[in-house]
Every structure is written in C-alpha cells, then in structure tokens.
Design a protein that fits this description.
alpha/beta; Spore Coat Polysaccharide Biosynthesis Protein SpsA, Chain A; seven-stranded mixed sheet; two-stranded antiparallel ribbon; 7 helices; 9 strands; 31% helix; 23% strand
Length: 196
C-alpha cells in the first residue's frame, strides 16, 4: 500500500463519549474495539500514527499526545497534534469511524497542495473529523482556542479548505461508510444486525 508522504496520522479519542456511556474508542464492533479497526486500516498509509487522549492510557501501545486542558472539543486535540508532529501535514480521524476507506484517504491526500486543509463535503457540510490539516492551520487554531472559540466550522471559514464534493466521495465510497460515526451502543447493535 502506498505511503502518504510528509504526513502523520492521529486518532482522536479525547471526547466525552456521553451518548456511548463508556469509552467510544474501546467499544467493540464485530468483536474488536473501534479504535483497533481504524488503526489496522490506516497504519500502512502513514510513517507515524499517534493517538490523541485526554489523559495517558495504559491500554494503548501507540505514541500518545496528552492534552488535559480544561477546554473540550476536537480542535484542542488537532492543535496539540499539529504542535507535536514533525511532518507538515496531519491526517485526522475520530475514534468512532471504524469503516474507513483507504482509497478515500489517498484521494484526499492528492488534493493537499496549496491548501490548509482537505476534507469531504457530505450532507451539505464539511466533515472536519476525517481529513488533512496542514501546519499552516496552527496560528488560527491557537488564536481561536486562546479566545475560547472552539467551533471547527467557524475555523474552517478562516482557512483555505479544499472540499471533496459528495458525488466524488461516493464514487470512491458509495455508501459513505468512511464518514459513518457510531455514537451509541444502539447504533453499534443496529449496524451489526444489518451486516449479519
């Protein structure tokens, strides 16, 4: 499988998992934690793979980026990861998206030149937790977080973002499985029943 150059991947696991009622990353689907499905799929694509956590985890072997700041939201994790990595680019994926298409990741990666971020545009909105962010995003993130502004959508308005249209995404991932997030036990059970 082709390696995506000059890019580190980060798995975001710092959410509160309120709807799941337990740690989403470790919620099992088909007998394996969701995080394990994602790691298995994307590890061959990147020279470095990290996990963003709110506090250090003993059940994880990957390098961890710990951000225990009082602020919440994915922008905190993405900013901390961008500050930590040595590459110019960061691929971001949330821990509740276990059906990732590596072909879609490669297609997004090809659009990185001259942009701050590359994301999909599905269901009439950008999907900020599956895509690429450049180091050039950092100043905007740092300022917004310092001001207490953590909306990813408002951040994207300030960046040069390349958005892959839904039709183009579907040509690669017809069911949009890569962007399916499983937020509750009920959603996992429903999905498993539909796939029996």
């Amino acid at each position: 499988m082709r390696l995506i150059e000059n890019c580190t991947a980060v798995l975001l696991t710092g959410g509160e998992s309120r709807r799941m009622g337990a740690d989403k990353a470790m919620a099992e689907i088909h007998g394996k934690p969701m995080a394990a499905h994602i790691i298995e799929a994307i590890d061959p694509l990147f020279s470095d793979l990290l996990i963003s956590v709110r506090e250090f985890r003993t059940d994880v072997t990957l390098p961890q980026i710990v951000d225990s700041s009082s602020g919440r939201g994915p922008m905190i994790g993405i900013k901390s990861a961008l500050e930590a990595v040595q590459t110019d680019w960061l691929f971001v994926i949330a821990c509740d998206m276990p059906f990732v298409s590596t072909d879609l990741i490669h297609a997004l990666a090809l659009k990185r030149e001259h942009h701050d971020a590359v994301l999909t545009h599905v269901s009439d909105r950008p999907q900020p937790l599956f895509g690429f962010y450049a180091k050039s995003c950092l100043p905007q993130m740092q300022v917004r977080i310092a001001e207490g502004q953590r909306s990813m959508m408002r951040l994207l308005d300030q960046l040069d973002v390349c958005l892959m249209a839904e039709a183009e995404v579907k040509a690669i991932d017809p069911q949009l499985n890569s962007l399916m997030s499983l937020d509750s036990v009920e959603e996992i059970k429903k999905m498993e029943l539909n796939n029996e």
